[in-house]
Specification:
The chain is built from 11 helices and 10 strands. With 344 residues, the protein is α+β, with helices and mostly antiparallel strands. Strands 1-5-6-10-9-8-7 form a 7-stranded mixed β-sheet, sandwiched between helices. It has a 3-stranded antiparallel β-sheet with strand order 2-4-3. Helix 5 packs across helix 10. The radius of gyration is 43 Å and the shape is rod-shaped. The mean pLDDT is 86.
């Protein structure tokens, strides 16, 4: 007859010495498997009498349950110890700052556009946008540039068909505003958006760029009103010490027309390489609205007048941020765009 007590002690000692769950699983197979030591005891059944067999079977089952119970207790103990080790090894130091999610930032041209919009909204202007594709009438003819007029050579246009083209300036939006508002006064709008011209790209030119044009029409509007508006614009965008000057120029839709310069923000008007020694930097074109433009829109130039101006967003951004190549705005270099985090 096998010694159940010796086998019970042996199993208990070996189970207690198990170092991990892998060792314990091997002991489970060794003692409780189909070919394990407990199952082997049943081979002795054939040598027993009929009266001895029931008690022998009970003893084998009791041993089996005892070993299984000790294995389960040890399994829970090892699992808890392993979990504690993982917790200790993988614990998180909650005193450290978390990893911040990186978010994109506004494009510098969008920042400048928003600054200009906020500035003019504060002056009572409306912001009006329009389609990139316009018809020839509103892009040119309503702007006092009839077909075959030499002034059309000033802009290399991208035509889609005979009558439609990618707008060369946002003046097309202004012409529609004038027509739709006639004969009501006053009109105060700024029109931002992309414009397109058939041009060779270089450090200061692009076939696609952004403009913001402004239009004011009311009674008794003069160049003095235009100058005051543009001085306010220059000081808000480039600093309170900035001054502006008008130089005579020509635009088909304004008369008189002027080019507008601002004192250099680098040398404060003393002359430097940025302003080519002149102390001034050109920022935009402007002028009094041409009487023909007012007549075509349904206004009487004898009773009202107005001024208009057009500023390149890229030019403002280049001067404001010291960017030396217009192509930086369009190459989608993340390193470049991440330098512009806020309004200034």
């Amino acid at each position: 007859m096998p010694n159940f007590e010796d086998l019970r002690k042996e199993a208990a000692e070996r189970i207690a010495q198990a170092q991990d769950l892998s060792d314990l699983n091997q002991l489970r197979v060794q003692y409780l498997g189909k070919k394990g030591k407990v199952q082997d005891l049943m081979k002795n059944m054939k040598n027993l009498s009929k009266e001895e067999k029931p008690q022998f079977g009970k003893d084998v089952n009791a041993l089996k349950q005892h070993v299984a119970s000790r294995i389960e207790e040890k399994r829970e103990e090892l699992a808890e110890a392993e979990m504690n080790m993982r917790i200790e090894r993988e614990k998180i130091d909650i005193t450290l700052p978390g990893r911040r999610q990186t978010a994109g930032n506004l494009h510098p041209l969008h920042i400048v556009t928003q600054e200009l919009e906020d500035l003019f909204i504060g002056l009572g202007y409306q912001v009006i946008e329009g389609n990139d594709i316009v018809d020839d009438e509103y892009c040119f003819e309503r702007a006092n540039i009839p077909k075959d007029h030499p002034a059309r050579a000033m802009q290399d246009s991208l035509y889609i068909d005979e009558n439609n083209l990618l707008r060369t300036h946002t003046t097309a939006i202004q012409m529609k505003v004038l027509e739709q508002a006639a004969p009501n006064l006053p009109i105060k709008v700024v029109c931002p958006g992309k414009v397109y011209r058939r041009d060779d790209d270089d450090a200061t030119h692009s076939h696609q760029f952004m403009q913001m044009e402004g239009l004011v029409v009311d009674r008794h509007i003069t160049l003095a009103d235009l100058k005051g508006t543009l001085e306010f614009l220059a000081r808000k965008m480039f600093g309170q010490d900035r001054q502006i000057r008008f130089r005579p120029s020509y635009f088909p839709f304004t008369e008189p027309s002027v080019e507008v310069d601002v004192t250099c923000h680098i040398c404060n008007g003393k002359g430097c390489p940025t302003c080519k020694g002149t102390g001034w930097i050109e920022i935009l074109g402007a002028g009094e609205v041409h009487p023909n433009v007012l007549r075509m829109a349904g206004y009487d130039p004898e009773k009202c007048s107005g001024f208009a101006f057009g500023v390149g967003i890229e030019r403002i951004a280049m001067l404001k941020y010291g960017v030396d190549d217009i192509r930086h705005f369009y190459t989608n270099d993340k390193r470049f765009e991440e330098t512009f985090k806020r309004f200034e």
